[in-house]
Amino acid sequence: MFQGSMVALVTPMNADGSLDWDSLHKLVDWHLENGTDAIVAVGTTGESATLAVSEHIAVIKDVVDQVSGRVPVIAGTGANNTREAIEWTQAAKDAGADACLLVTPYYNKPTQEGLYQHYMAIADAVDIPQILYNVPGRTGVDMLPETVFRLQGHKNIIGIKEATGDMDRAKTLIDGRVEDFSIMSGDDPTAVELILLGGTGNISVTANVAPAQVSHMCVLALAGQADASRAINDSLKPVHKAMFVESNPIPVKWAVAEMGLMGRGIRLPMTPLAEQYHQEVRTALQNANLL
Predict the structure, then answer these.
(1) Calpha distance 118→205 (Å, rounded)
(2) Are strands 99-103 and 130-134 parallel, antiparallel or unpaired?
(3) Would you place residue 236 in the very low, low, confident or very high pLDDT band (cuts 50, 70, 90)?
């Protein structure tokens, strides 16, 4: 159910930081027209950290309604407070999400046992497919494979978004997974290699600006067509790089706006892309025939 190109969707905002619902609807439809296989609402790229709780749930519900069953909707519901993560996950289920993406608790740096108990508590509390999300570069905590293997037997824990970009780690997870447990990339530059190793897809930042290309790349990689999928990835490498010239989602929001798909709104403490990077991002988009 959850495979291929899954966009970590930006949350469009007006200049004053209010949510831009019209652009959100248009973005969802644009992704579906361009082959995106699933939409992740209010993940890191969707500025989950700066949305109010009511906004967070409203965006999930709005995306679910706009998608209208055409592809799965995965809701970002992770928190560093286990009770809060349970509440958000239940609210996402009530809003009609098909699954939830739960980032490791950030800042308070739990132990591996703490991570295990955190995820088990959420999985026990809410009956919805749940995807673990490991991104130590942002959270300050690394969920080790041994902990993933302890969790993968729970009926509600169906996969992991592994965003380290470490192919040795990816191989360990793929080799040790149980049947039907999905290993998904959260790192665009290495996503093809993870899929070719046996992964199921890519939760992608780059897909915000290149949905058709990332979708085709994933289709080829899932079919084992290594050379063809790598060729597309090679053509997108400057875009992958450009999307992280400053902290995500600063560059990707600027890029989507530059493509005319939404305005340039972003919320503090995130700031608009620094002018010194404008040409680098613009050139990457132009060279990939996205502008």
Answers:
(1) 27
(2) parallel
(3) very high
For 249, which DSSP code? T
Cβ neighbour number for residue 19 with a 10 Å cutoff: 17
**pLDDT tens digits, 8-19:** 999 999 999 999
Question: Which residues is 102 bridged to in the sheet?
Answer: 132
| 115-143 CB burial, b ≥16 within 10 A, e <16 | bbebbbebbeebebbbbbbbbeeebebbb
Interval 121-157: pLDDT, tens: 999 999 999 999 999 999 999 999 999 999 999 999 9
Q: Are 255 and 209 in contact (CB under 8 A)?
A: yes
pLDDT at 216 over 90: yes
CA distance linking residue 282 with residue 258, whole number of Å: 8
Q: In which residue are the tokens 């080790």 written?
A: 144
Query: Do you find a cis peptide bond into 110, omega within 30 degrees of 0?
Result: no
Looking at residue 40, its pLDDT comes to: 98
Contact 46, 40 (CB under 8 A): yes
CA–centroid distance for 261 within its chain: 19
User: What is the domain partition of the chain in residue ranges?
Assistant: 4-222
Tell me the two tokens of residue 55: 């906004």
Helix (H, G, I), strand (E, B) or coil at 198: coil
Instruction: Tell me how crowded residue 202 is: count the other CB atoms within 10 A of its CB.
Output: 31
Looking at 61, 93, 161, 253, which residue is catalytic? 161
161 in catalytic set: yes
CA distance linking residue 166 with residue 260, whole number of Å:
34
133 has catalytic annotation: yes
Classify domain 4-222 by CATH architecture. Answer: Alpha-Beta Barrel (3.20)
Look at the block and give the residue holding tokens 């060729």.
231
Catalytic residue selected from 93, 119, 133, 253? 133
Q: Three-state SS for 5?
A: strand
